[in-house]
Amino acid sequence: MGYRLGLALLISFLAALNVSAAPAPARVDRVQMPAWLERDGSPVPMSPGLEVRNGDRLRTGPGARVYLRLAEGSTIKLGESARVVFHHRGDSPESHFRGAMEVLIGAFRFTTDLLRRLEEREMVIRVGTATIGIRGTDVWGRTTPEQDLVMLLEGRIDISPAAGSTFAMAEPLTAYVALRGQAGTVVGVSQAELQARARETEILPGDGAVGPGGAWSLVLGAPADEEVALERYERARAAGFAVHIRPLAAQRGSWTYEVLLPGFADEAEARAAASRIQAALGLEARPRP
User: Fold this and answer.
1) 286, β-bridge pairs
2) What H or E segment, with its residue span, contains residue 107?
3) CB 258 within 8 A of CB 248
4) Smallest Cα–Cα separation from 135: which of 150, 160, 114, 109?
5) Residue ranges in the chain assigned as alpha helix (H)
6) In terms of Cα–Cα distance, which of 117, 159, 122, 115 is closest to 139?
7) How far is Cα 219 from Cα 90, in angstroms, rounded to an integer?
C-alpha cells in the first residue's frame, strides 16, 4: 500500500469516527456540496459530523448550502458562494456557549433553540460593517460588495453599525439595510421577499444534499489501478466533494478501489448530486443503496 492510499484510508476512517477529546462548539449537519472547511491553512471538503472549531474558515461553492448545528442547539445555514469565519471561546459549549461568526461574503440564517435559557448563549455575528447581538432569534442576513442586509424574522437583535450607536430591532419582518459607504436604515419586509431570501440558505428535498444517516451513496467508479483511483479521489475532494476510497479484493489477489460519496437520503438526492459532480468534474457517478 502506498503512502497516498494509506493517507486516504486514514482520512476516511477518521471521518467515520468524528470523535475528539474536547466537545466541539459546532458540527456540520447537512451539506449540499461543494463546500470546504479550512483549519490551519488546510482545506477539507465538508461532510456531516465534521467538527467546527475556533478560527475555522468555511466556504461554500456555487449552488451549495451548509447547515451547522451549534453545541447549544441553534442552527446556522449558509448559502452559496459564502465565506465565514467561526469563533468560540470556553470549554463547555454545550452548556455555556460563547461564540461569534464573521460573514465575509454571502448569505446566512441563524435560528436559536428557544428552549434554551438565554443566559446560556452569547452569540455575535458580524455582517460586513454591522455587528448583530443575538437573543432568542430567527435572523437572515447577507453581505455583498454593494450592501449589508439583516432581516429579523422573529425575536430580537441588537445592531451595532460601524458608524453610529447600537439599537434594538424587535419587530418581525423588518430589515436593516446599509449600502456600502452609507448609513443604514430599517425597512419593512414582505412575505414574498422573505420567502425568496430564505430559499438562498435553505436545503429542500431533491437538492442533492447529504446528511446524518443517509443510506444511499454515489460511486465515482471502481478503478483497478490505484493511481487512477487516487487521482479521482483527490480531484473530487479538492473540488469540495467529501468522497472516500475503499479497496475491494478482486480475483487472483488483485484489488479495485471504489471512490464513494455517502450520506444521501434516497436515490433522488443522490442523482441530483451526481449531476453536480458531472458538471464540476466531468465524472459519471452512479447511485447505490
Assistant:
1) 219
2) strand 97-111
3) yes
4) 114
5) 3-17, 191-199, 226-238, 267-281
6) 159
7) 41
The answer for residues whose C-beta is within 8 angstroms of residue 116's C-beta and 6 or more apart is: 72, 73, 74
C-alpha cell at 188: 419593512
Instruction: Identify the residue whose cell numbers are 446566512.
Output: 108
Alpha-carbon 231 to chain mean position = 25
Instruction: Record the cell numbers describing residue 159, joined without a space.
Output: 445592531
Burial 242-258 (b: 16+ CB within 10 A, else e): bbbbebeeeeeeebbbb
What b/e readout covers 51-88, taking b as 16+ CB neighbours within 10 angstroms?
bbbbebbbbbbebbbbbbbbbbbbbbbbbbebbbbbbb
Measured between alpha carbons, how far is 94 from 119 in angstroms, rounded to an integer? 13
Packing angle, helices 226-238 and 267-281, rounded to 10:
90
Q: For the chain, 289 residues long, give each residue's pLDDT as a single digit of tens.
A: 555 655 454 455 445 545 454 678 899 999 999 999 999 999 999 999 999 999 999 999 999 999 999 988 889 999 999 999 999 886 555 556 778 899 999 999 999 866 554 456 678 899 998 999 987 789 999 999 999 999 999 999 999 998 889 999 999 999 999 999 888 999 999 999 999 999 999 999 999 999 999 999 999 988 878 898 899 999 999 999 999 998 888 777 678 889 999 999 999 999 999 999 999 999 999 999 9
Distances (CA, A) of 272 to 26, 32, 211, 277, 279: 27, 10, 14, 9, 11
DSSP letter for 210, please. Answer: B
Domains of the chain: 21-199 (2.60.120.1440), 216-288 (3.30.70)
Residues 6+ apart with CB under 8 A from 230: 4, 5, 8, 245, 257
Residue with cell 450520506: 263
Record the cell numbers describing residue 23, joined without a space.
Answer: 466537545
pTM for this structure? 0.90
